[in-house]
Backbone:
C-alpha cells in the first residue's frame, strides 16, 4: 500500500512538473528566450507535442509498476511463488492488464465494490457451529453500505430452513438475502413460464410455493432420494421425450453423508439426459448463471461484486468466471494448495471469513 501511495505521489509530481515545464516554455518564448529549437526539427511547436508525449510516456512508465489500488496488495501472487515455476513475464503482464481492465470497468461505472456474496456451509458456519468471529465480521460488513447475499447450492433445504439455522447461530440475516440453487431454479421456471414436475426433496417444495405444477411440461430435478424410483423417473423420462425442458439444481456426482458417501443428483440427471438425448440446464454453482442470478435486481454488475467461499472451483472459480472477484477461505472443505486448482488463481486466499471481511473493508471499499 505504501508503495502504491508513493507511486501515485510520484505520478502526481510528474504531472505538476510537466505542466510547470510547459508554462515555463511559454513564458520563455514570450520574452523571446524560447529553448525548444531542435527537439522536433522544423520549428512548428515541436516542444509542446513531444513534451506531451513524453509526459504521457513517463506517467505510463510510473503507472506500469502500479497495481490497481482496489486490488490491494498482491496476496495471491505471493502464494503463487510457492509454485514450481514463477509466472512467466507475459503471464504476469496479462494478469496486470486484466487487473487494469477490471479497474477501468469499475471506474467507468464510477463505483467501487457494491455487493458481497457469501457461501454458507464451510464459510460462515460449519454444520452447526459458526466460524469463530463470523457474526461480528458480518456486522462490520453491514456497517459498510454493500449489498450482501448468502448463496448456496443446497437441493433440499428451503430458504426458510437455512434462515432458521443461521438465526440459531446468531447471524443477523433476512430471508430475502438468501439465494440458493432452488431460488435459481424457481426463477428459471418463472422465466420460461412452464409447469414443472418437481423431483426435489419434500423440504425444498416450500421454495416453489405458488408455482403451478399440475399437468407438468417441464422437469426440475434436485437430490430427492425418496422420489428416485422407477415409476417417477419414468414419468420424467416421458415428459422429456415430449419436449419438456430438464432443469437440474446441480450435477454433483456424490456427496458425503454421516454414514458414508452417497449418490448425488448428477447420476440421475445424467441418466435422464442419456435416455432422452437431451441436455439439462444446470442452475447451481459453479454455473455462471447462478452468480448472475444472485445479483439480479440489485443493480450491481458482476465486476462490482466479490464472492467469498471455501470451494475453490465452485465458489471462487465460478464467481471469477462470471466476472466477479473470488476470495477463498481456508475453512470448511479447503485443503492445502486448493488455490492452485484454478486459473486465474483466486483474487485472494485467506484464513477465514473475518479475514476476508477485513480485506474488503480495507482494500475494496
Ligand atoms: C454444490 O454443487 C457442487 C457442484 O455441482 C457440488 O460439488 C457440491 O457438493 C454441491 N453442494 C451441495 C451442498 O449440494
Ligand atoms: C458442510 O461443510 C462441511 C465442511 O466442509 C462438510 O463436511 C459437510 O458435509 C457440509 N454439510 C452439508 C450439509 O453440505
Residues:
Amino acid at each position: 500500500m505504501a508503495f502504491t501511495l508513493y507511486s501515485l505521489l510520484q505520478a502526481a509530481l510528474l504531472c505538476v512538473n510537466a505542466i510547470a515545464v510547459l508554462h515555463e516554455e511559454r513564458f520563455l518564448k514570450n520574452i523571446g528566450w524560447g529553448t525548444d529549437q531542435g527537439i522536433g526539427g522544423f520549428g512548428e511547436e515541436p516542444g509542446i507535442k513531444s513534451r506531451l508525449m513524453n509526459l504521457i510516456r513517463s506517467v505510463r512508465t510510473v503507472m506500469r509498476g502500479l497495481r490497481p489500488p482496489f486490488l490491494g496488495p498482491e496476496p495471491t501472487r505471493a502464494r503463487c511463488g510457492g509454485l514450481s515455476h514463477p509466472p512467466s513475464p507475459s503471464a504476469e503482464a496479462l494478469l496486470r492488464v486484466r487487473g487494469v481492465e477490471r479497474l477501468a470497468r469499475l471506474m467507468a461505472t464510477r463505483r467501487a465494490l457494491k455487493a458481497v456474496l457469501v457461501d454458507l456451509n464451510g464459510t460462515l458456519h460449519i454444520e452447526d457451529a459458526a466460524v469463530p468471529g463470523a457474526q461480528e465480521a458480518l456486522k462490520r460488513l453491514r456497517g459498510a453500505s454493500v449489498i450482501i447475499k448468502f448463496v448456496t447450492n443446497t437441493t433440499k433445504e428451503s430458504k426458510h430452513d437455512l434462515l432458521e439455522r443461521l438465526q440459531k447461530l446468531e447471524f443477523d440475516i433476512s430471508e430475502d438475502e438468501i439465494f440458493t440453487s432452488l431460488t435459481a431454479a424457481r426463477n428459471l421456471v418463472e422465466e420460461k413460464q412452464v409447469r414443472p414436475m418437481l423431483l426435489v426433496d419434500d423440504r425444498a417444495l416450500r421454495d416453489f410455493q405458488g408455482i403451478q405444477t399440475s399437468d407438468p411440461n417441464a422437469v426440475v430435478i434436485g437430490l430427492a432420494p425418496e422420489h428416485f424410483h422407477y415409476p417417477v423417473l419414468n414419468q420424467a423420462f416421458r415428459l422429456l421425450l415430449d419436449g419438456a425442458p430438464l432443469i437440474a439444481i446441480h450435477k454433483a456426482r456424490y456427496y458425503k453423508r454421516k454414514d458414508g458417501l452417497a449418490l448425488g443428483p448428477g447420476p440421475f440427471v445424467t441418466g435422464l439426459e442419456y435416455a432422452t438425448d437431451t441436455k439439462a440446464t444446470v442452475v447451481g454453482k459453479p454455473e455462471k448463471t447462478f452468480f448472475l442470478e444472485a445479483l439480479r435486481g440489485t443493480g450491481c454488475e458482476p465486476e462490482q461484486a466479490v464472492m467469498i467461499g471455501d470451494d475453490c472451483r465452485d465458489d471462487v472459480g465460478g464467481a471469477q468466471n462470471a466476472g466477479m472477484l473470488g476470495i477463498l477461505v481456508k475453512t470448511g472443505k479447503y485443503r492445502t494448495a486448493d488455490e492452485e486448482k484454478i486459473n486465474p488463481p483466486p483474487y485472494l486466499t485467506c484464513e477465514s471469513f473475518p479475514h476476508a471481511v477485513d480485506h474488503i473493508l480495507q482494500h475494496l471499499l
Q: What stands out?
A: The first strand starts at residue 115 and ends at 119. Residues 121-122, 126-127, 256, 332-333 surround 2-acetamido-2-deoxy-beta-D-glucopyranose (ligand 2) (CB under 6 Å). DSSP finds twelve helices and 14 strands in the chain.
